[in-house]
Every structure is written in C-alpha cells, then in structure tokens.
C-alpha cells in the first residue's frame, strides 16, 4: 500500500474547458439529477457539474432515505399534512405540501417505471416508501446521461457568472482530476448543492459545505429559515453513521448504566444536556429478535461499522454523540419566490437542501422522507423553470461578456491568503457546541456573532487562495457565511419554534409565526416575512 | 477512514478514484490507486461498495487513522463485508430486499 499526503492535484498548465448550455445544474444529488432530467426533457441543453461524483456524492447516496410517498387518498393526504404541522411550528404551507405530495407520488412511480427495484410485500404489492441511496442515485445518474446531459464529475464550482444586466450567466470552477478549469455559460442556473453540515463527519455530508448559499448570496440571493439549522443526529461516537431511525428502539444511559431520564430518539435535548458534562451510552435493547432481523435487512449500512468495531448494538452498550447536520437535516436555505423555485436573482433557481424547506417542513425535519420528497419535487420544478427561462431568452441569447460574481478567496489583491483549515476550525468552534447551537441564548449567539463577524472581515480582506487550496478556501468561506445567517436569524427569533430552541425564550410566540429572511455577506440583514406576504409575492411572480 | 488498497486484490480499474466524493485517491499508472488525501475521507464507504474485487477497507472510525493488517482483515472476512451485508441491490436483481416497510414504529 502506498500513501502520501498532498494537496489537490491542480495542473495549472492544463487548459481550461468551456461549455455553452441553456441550463447549468450545480450539484448531482437527488435535486440536481431531477432538475437536469426535467430541463433536458423540456428541450434544454444541460450541463451538470458535481464537486464529487454524481451518483455517490451527498447525503442521500451513501445513506438512503424514507420518502413522503402518500397515495392520492384525501384522508391519507390530510393526515400526512396534519401530522407534522405542530412539530414544524405551523410554518408550512398547505398549497406547497399538496404540490409536493402530488409530485412525489408521480416521481416515485416514475422511478419504478425506470427500473428502481422496489421491494414487494407478501401480497406482491410494491412498497414505495423508502429508497436505498446507492441504487437510487446510480439510477438517477443513468437517467441524466440518457437525457443527453453532460456530466462533469470532480468539478467543484467556485463562483457564478453574470451578464451585463446582472442576470446569472453560468459558473466557473476547477477540474480536480484532469487539472485546469471549466467555465460554463448558461441562460439559467440551478443551485442544487445541498445544505451545510460544517464538515462534522456525518454520513456522506462532508461535501455539503454551503457552497451554493455563498455563490447565490454573492449575486444578492436571499435565504429563509436559517435559524432552523441546528439538526443534530445521534451517532456512535467513533462513527460517521448518522442514521437515527433505529434509536427509537434504544435505551440511553449514563456511564454507570443508569437510564437517562427523558432521553430518546425524539428526546434529544436530554442527550445533549448530558453530553455537555459526561458521556452517553446506548443499547438497542427494545428490539425483539424479529425486529432485529428486519433492521439488518432494512439498513445494512447501519450495522457494518458497528460490526467492524466489534460492537453488538442489541446487547452491548456503546458511546453515542450528537453530530451537527446543520441545514442538511435543518430546513433553512435559499429563499424561493415562486412555484418554479426561482430565487430573487433572475435566472437563478434553487432545489433540494440548497433551498428552504420551510414550505413543507416548517421549522423541523430531522431529515428523511420530507427532504427526499422536497428534493425530487423542487428539483423537477427548478429544472423545468430554468429551462423555460433559458429557452425564452431564445437561441440568439449568448452573453457577449460574462463577469465573475465571486468574492472571498478569489479576488486579486496584495494581501496574503487565509488558512482554510484554521477558518473551518474557528467556525466549527462556534456551531458545534450544544451550549451555543442546540440551546441558544441571546448572550451566546451575540458572543459567537462578534467572533464570526471579525473572522469574516479577516477572510474577505485576505488575498486570493492558491489553486491547490481554493476549493477548501471557498468551502470555509461558505461555512462562515452560513454560520452568520444562522446565528443572526436565531438571534432575531425570540421564541422557541420547530428545532430552534431559545433557553431565554422557551415558549412559542403566536406573534412570530412568520419567516425570517436573511441576506448579505459583509452586512447580514434579517427581515420578517409573513405567510400572507410570501404568498402575495408568489402570486405576483 | 480508508485504510487499505489491497495490492493483491486490486485490478487497477480506478473505479474508487472516480466514485469517491471527496477525491481521496489518486490514480497511479500501472499500479493500484494511492490514498493521497486520507484526512479528507468522510467514511461514507462508497468506494468499498463500488470496488469489484473487495480490495478496499474503510475502518469504522471517522476522522482518525487506525492501523490495519490485511491478513487479519482477510481472515476475519471483513474485506467486502459492507457490500455483502446487502446494502445496494446486486446487479441483475429486480427486487430490493429492503424491509423498511415492515418495520413498525418503535413508539
């Protein structure tokens, strides 16, 4: 075995490649692949770029997911919508929930037509409420290719491009394996880069560093619901496997074996409070033999790492932690302003975890089925919308000149570059601790923001990152920007709602049943948007 | 983290280089791929899942390198155990063995 540590292989001598397309999709997870297929089937010429590899990148490919698949039976649909409204703090929108349920039902049935091998029950009926990540995303990659879409793997986008009118006109980035750069001119762009999990090591989540939020915000796009960004997943302390369903069968205990009062898969606060002073252990001791066998057959990937560590989770206690999954299983993201998932920037669309999921989830998900339903729905709509937008510009549309829209870490000046690893650690030190982010207070948030704002000033006045470090520099900058939208929004919401918990405001406040819109990079602003204002804006658009 | 590319088993197809979302491997001419950026490994196991010869081993610890011994892994049946556990439907099979739908809520 050979091993060496080296930086990104960037061959600066390698020539850049240039592409023209109607639609550029950034991100090749569920939302991006659905967007690419939808845009291509509407007749657009489409390019999809992925920072890693379309088909294996992101939270879905390695983890798999339940799906909010509900047959079109009015009583079942009503129950599905009503069941989570309280949990989400009543910020959902019934019109959007209905659209997503309709679209998800169609999309899942399409997956079956395309050959997704859904399991069957004892009556030979297909069961379509769950997707295994590797199979789902392998199929989606195949569909994207079949649609005639050009896929560029290992091609992180560094920044968006704009035309002379300030409309989005494409993006540029690096080719990490071939060397050199890519530049894609496009009539519209779909941001499907996922959420931001702050490199916390959750399963498949380290590619999700908020890159799309930063790139879109550099064009003036707004975000919504960024206070709903403190999803923490239960996970064996040593492991990356942030799959939490099976902890419903767990008992959580202190080191001496005594059960922790109130600790459960749905009672994570008690786990978080305990972890602030001492380790937490768990055993899946509430699963009988039959359930144990079903669990192994449902999520084999939950068990292999435990097997490898020599732990029998049904019989032995093992230490667990709560790993931050930020907006991946939170619900905040880019604000969308109409049914095609357009952002406030002309030609720029957002889908999946890169977009806000408040419309279907309110202030709480915990991930899984609603996010998956949102990804396949919003991806489809964003792809179709982006295609319409680009094709309306007509075949004659070609931006004569495109300008780079990116800032931090990219623009030439005489200053020295910043150290991405150092900035990443500084951001993590503010967003990981339960005392800061799980249990929020005015004092804690204000102190964090003071440090994060200072760090932003340092980072944005630093010089351009060297080619070997620029991807990590942009990721660090995106995580830093994300943390500031998060905490500014969290400070503005002086109540407890959804996953947002304020120790100093422990109750839900009826007067704050509204969305918080955050925007800006140097100067972060948070404004209130009521549900009525939002639907008026959607109607006007 | 990724700890092993078995030189005995590797057929240098470089599939792992392509599928790794974190770009951890570098292809090497006429040789097995090199673990070039181990610290970037996110322990997602996708490389193992795609390896046609079970030549890779991802240790369960995330963010921390651990020493592994290939003969011990081999003897313990650990090479390829992620794939054999049934995660991902085998090529040619038209039905997933996913039993999620049978699991009732624990509440």
Short summary of the structure?
The complex is a heterodimer of chains A (541) and B (107). Chain A has 541 residues and is of the alpha+beta class.
Structure description:
The complex is a heterodimer of chains A (541) and B (107). Chain A is 36% helix and 16% strand. Chain A has helices at residues 30-41, 58-63, 74-83, 94-113, 133-146, 211-217, 268-275, 289-298, 300-308, 358-361, 369-392, 420-431, 434-438, 442-460, 470-492, 531-540, and strands spanning 17-26, 46-49, 65-66, 130-131, 150-152, 157-162, 168-174, 181-191, 223-224, 231-236, 251-253, 280-283, 318-326, 333-334, 348-350, 403-404, 515-519, 525-529. In chain A, the strands form four sheets. In chain A, strands 1, 2, 5, 6, 7, 8, 15 and 16 form an eight-stranded mixed beta sheet that branches. In chain A, strands 14-9-17-18 form a four-stranded antiparallel beta sheet. A four-stranded antiparallel beta sheet of chain A has the order 10-13-12-11, covered by helices on one side. In chain A, helix 1 runs parallel beside helix 11 and helix 12 packs parallel to helix 15. Chain B is of the alpha+beta class and 107 residues long. Chain B is 19% helix and 15% strand. Chain B has four helices and four strands. Chain B has helices spanning 15-19, 46-50, 70-75, 81-84; strands at 2-5, 25-28, 31-35, 56-58. A two-stranded antiparallel sheet of chain B has the order 1-4. In chain B, strand 2 (25-28) and strand 3 form a beta hairpin. The chains are: A alpha+beta (541), B alpha+beta (107). At the A-B interface, helix 2, helix 8 and helix 9 of A face helix 1, strand 3 and helix 2 of B.
User: What class would the helix/strand composition of chain A place it in?
Assistant: alpha+beta
Instruction: Please count the beta strands of chain B (DSSP E, at least 2 residues each).
Output: 4
User: What separation lies between the terminal Cα atoms of chain A?
Assistant: 58 Å
The proportion of strand residues of chain B reads 5-15%
On the 0-100 scale, what is the average pLDDT of chain A? 93
Largest inter-chain interface? A-B, 65 and 57 residues
Can you count the helices of chain B?
A: 4
> In angstroms, what is the radius of gyration of chain B?
15 Å
Strand element count of chain A: 18
**Share of helix of chain B, binned:** 10-25%
Q: Largest sheet of chain B at a glance?
A: 2 strands, antiparallel
- Uncertain runs of chain B: none
Distance, first to last CA of chain B: 35 Å
Taking the sheet with the most strands of chain A, its summary is: 8 strands, mixed
Overall pLDDT confidence of chain B? 91
């Amino acid at each position: 075995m050979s091993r060496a540590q080296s930086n990104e292989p960037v061959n600066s001598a390698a020539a850049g490649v240039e592409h023209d397309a109607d639609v550029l999709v950034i991100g090749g997870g569920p939302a991006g692949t659905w967007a690419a297929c939808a845009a291509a089937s509407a007749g657009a010429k489409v390019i999809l770029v992925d920072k890693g590899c379309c088909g294996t990148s992101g939270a879905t490919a390695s983890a798999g997911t339940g799906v909010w698949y509900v047959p079109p039976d009015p009583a079942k649909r009503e129950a599905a919508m009503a069941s989570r409204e309280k949990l989400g703090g009543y910020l959902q929108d019934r019109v959007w929930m209905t659209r997503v349920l309709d679209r998800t039902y169609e999309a899942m049935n399409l997956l079956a037509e395309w050959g997704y091998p859904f399991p069957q029950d004892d009556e030979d009926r297909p069961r379509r409420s769950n997707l295994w990540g590797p199979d789902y995303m392998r199929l989606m990659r195949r569909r994207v290719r079949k649609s005639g879409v050009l896929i560029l793997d290992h091609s992180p986008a560094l920044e968006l491009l704009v035309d002379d009118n300030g409309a989005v006109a494409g993006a540029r980035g690096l080719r990490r394996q071939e060397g050199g750069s890519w530049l894609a001119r496009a009539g519209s762009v779909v941001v499907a880069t996922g959420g931001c999990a702050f490199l916390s090591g959750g399963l498949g989540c380290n590619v999700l560093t908020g890159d799309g939020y930063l790139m879109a915000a550099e064009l003036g796009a707004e975000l919504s619901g960024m206070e709903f960004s403190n999803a923490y997943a239960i996970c064996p302390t040593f492991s990356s496997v942030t799959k939490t369903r099976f902890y419903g069968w767990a008992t959580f205990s202190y080191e001496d074996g005594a059960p922790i009062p109130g600790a459960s898969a749905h009672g994570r606060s008690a786990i978080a409070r305990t972890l602030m002073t001492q380790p937490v252990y768990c055993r899946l001791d509430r699963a009988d033999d039959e359930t144990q066998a079903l669990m192994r057959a449902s999520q084999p990937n939950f068990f292999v790492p435990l097997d490898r560590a020599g732990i029998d989770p049904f019989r032995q206690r093992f230490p667990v932690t709560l790993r931050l999954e930020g907006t991946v299983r939170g619900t905040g993201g880019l604000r969308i302003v109409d049914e095609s998932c357009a952002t406030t920037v002309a030609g720029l669309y957002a889908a999946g975890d890169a977009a806000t999921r408040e419309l279907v989830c309110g202030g709480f998900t915990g991930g899984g089925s609603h996010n998956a339903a949102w990804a396949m729905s919003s991806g489809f709509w964003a792809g179709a919308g982006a295609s319409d937008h680009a094709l309306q510009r007509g075949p004659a549309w070609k931006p004569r000149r495109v300008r780079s829209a990116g800032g931090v870490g990219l623009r030439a000046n005489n200053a020295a570059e910043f150290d991405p690893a150092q900035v990443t650690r500084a951001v993590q030190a503010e967003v990981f601790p339960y005392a800061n982010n799980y249990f929020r207070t005015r004092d804690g948030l204000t102190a964090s923001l003071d440090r994060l704002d200072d760090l932003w000033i340092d980072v944005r006045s630093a010089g351009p990152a060297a080619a070997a470090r620029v991807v990590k520099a942009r990721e660090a900058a995106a995580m830093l920007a994300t943390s500031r939208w998060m905490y500014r929004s969290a400070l503005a919401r002086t109540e407890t709602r959804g996953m947002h918990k304020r120790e100093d405001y422990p109750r839900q406040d009826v007067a704050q049943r509204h969305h918080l819109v955050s925007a800006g990079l140097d100067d972060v602003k948070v404004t209130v948007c009521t549900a009525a204002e939002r639907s008026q804006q959607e109607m006007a658009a | 983290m990724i700890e092993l590319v078995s030189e005995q088993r590797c057929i240098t197809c470089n599939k792992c280089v392509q599928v790794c979302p974190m770009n951890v491997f570098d292809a090497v001419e006429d040789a097995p791929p090199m673990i070039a950026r181990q610290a970037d490994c996110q322990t997602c196991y996708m490389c193992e899942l795609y390896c046609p010869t079970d030549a890779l081993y991802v240790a369960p610890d995330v963010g921390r390198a651990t020493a592994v011994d290939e003969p011990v892994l081999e003897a313990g049946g650990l090479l390829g155990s992620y794939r054999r556990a049934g995660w991902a439907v085998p090529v040619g099979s038209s039905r997933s063995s996913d039993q999620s739908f049978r699991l009732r809520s624990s509440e």
